[in-house]
Amino acid sequence: xxxxxxxxxxxxxxxxxxxxxxxxxxxxxxxxxxxxxxxxxxxxxxxxxxxxxxxxxxxxxxxxxxxxxxxxxxxxxxxxxxxxxxxxxxxxxxxxxxxxxxxxxxxxxxxxxxxxxxxxxxxxxxxxxxxxxxxxxxxxxxxxxxxxxxxxxxxxxxxxxxxxxxxxxxxxxxxxxxxxxxxxxxxxxxxxxxxxxxxxxxxxxxxxxxxxxxxxxxxxxxxxxxxxxxxxxxxxxxxxxxxxxxxxxxxxxxxxxxxxxxxxxxxxxxxxxxxxxxxxxxxxxxxxxxxxxxxxxxxxxxxxxxxxxxxxxxxxxxxxxxxxxxxxxxxxxxxxxxxxxxxxxxxxxxxxxxxxxxxxxxxxxxxxxxxxxxxxxxxxxxxxxxxxxxxxxxxxxxxxxxxxxxxxxxxxxxxxxxxxxxxxxxxxxxxxxxxxxxxxxxxxxxxxxxxxxxxxxxxxxxxxxxxxxxxxxxxxxxxxxxxxxxxxxxxxxxxxxxxxxxxxxxxxxxxx
Length: 512
Ligand SMILES: [Zn+2]
Description:
Layout: E1 6-9, E2 14-17, E3 25-34, H1 43-59, E4 63-71, H2 75-84, H3 88-105, H4 121-133, E5 137-140, E6 143-146, E7 180-185, E8 200-202, H5 204-216, E9 220-226, H6 230-245, E10 250-256, E11 259-260, H7 299-305, H8 308-316, E12 324-325, H9 330-349, H10 357-364, H11 366-387, H12 392-409, H13 415-418, H14 420-437, H15 444-455, H16 463-478, H17 482-494, E13 497-502, E14 505-510
Parallel strand pairs: 3-4, 3-9, 9-10, 11-12
Antiparallel strand pairs: 1-2, 5-6, 6-7, 7-8, 13-14
Helix pairs in contact: 2-3, 4-5, 4-6, 5-6, 8-9, 9-12, 9-14, 10-11, 10-14, 11-12, 11-14, 12-14, 16-17
The structure holds zinc ion.
Residues 31, 208, 233 line the site of zinc ion.
């Protein structure tokens, strides 16, 4: 049975009980990438949030149809391709491949459907035809415009007032400053398709109305995307779909906050061809990361230095609706937090013993009692957080608290021999965290290998060099040359490489 949850709805500006159109099923449409360049850490916030949201809903027995589109023809793609002297559709194709590579590397599942504009042209034209027929759109000089004053509810989602909108693009034959293009008349050098209004290509907003309609129907349960898309993109989608079908377009609007950079510079909205008049810049968009601003950090570059789970934790450790500041400390901090979780699990796995858990906890004392209490309460605490407007930061807070309690317990001498039964529910808790948030999915060994592969080069060492030094140290110890042995250990410690002496020899790890 699908379990109930609550969600903040941008349209009503309140947290609401989620009621699906079809019991047990969620139809989710998320605006995807405009593929003119590589995916940066700002873009992938939405990708990780909605991937995790879908993962969680499925864990809670919802059946989900998750649709995320590609904008593969657009002003920006055409512009960039012209600069590079290449075919715009070939450029889009290349960046779609790069995007898939990055998302796989990030550990994301593919959406159920990934429609593309260039493969949705008949549906887009059908929708435009319907809008003209119903008196909500008009053709002029080979373009088709949406007639904004024909839809009195325009502005309800974003709170914009039509009469205050300024026009960015006068547009040939456009009747009202707020009207926006559904179909753009062909210009030389641009990809174009035949249409009843002459050759041309779709405007940006109509594509999502058409793709949502063709994949999920006239009304969808949840429409997602970045908060920067509320106006004009989502506002326009609402008008297009509701005027064409006479039905509510999206029952819930779920928007993630922007990733912000410390410069505090104001940057534009989604870089795309946009003929829609601008409104006021929402406060949530101040300092947003953007390709065109030269402050973008690409995902593939970050993944060379950090495990994918460190990025995932970085995104999920802040509520999805809040702005997410990104600076030089952000990923090191997330990696440190991730390492604490893995360390706690490793410590718990090392504990043995077979007595009844409550008896052991009582005899080990307050720290053991705390672990038992937190671990047993963990599933309901995690579900309560995630069911309340998908509060991943709250859920992670419970995991960090449990990890700290385990680390405290592991300092007790007897915990290693007898603590096993006390930490058993904690191990189950970590496994629940893996299933729901996609964190701690690796074994300790896999995690350590990834850390060594990605962090060691930054410390100026190779694994071979570290192993070589440890062999020299083992030799020095065999020769009882303690000062040389200590000197090597200190040299490694200075470079954040920890040496642990075990029964069978020395091990080493990168300190995080
Ligand atoms: Zn869209």
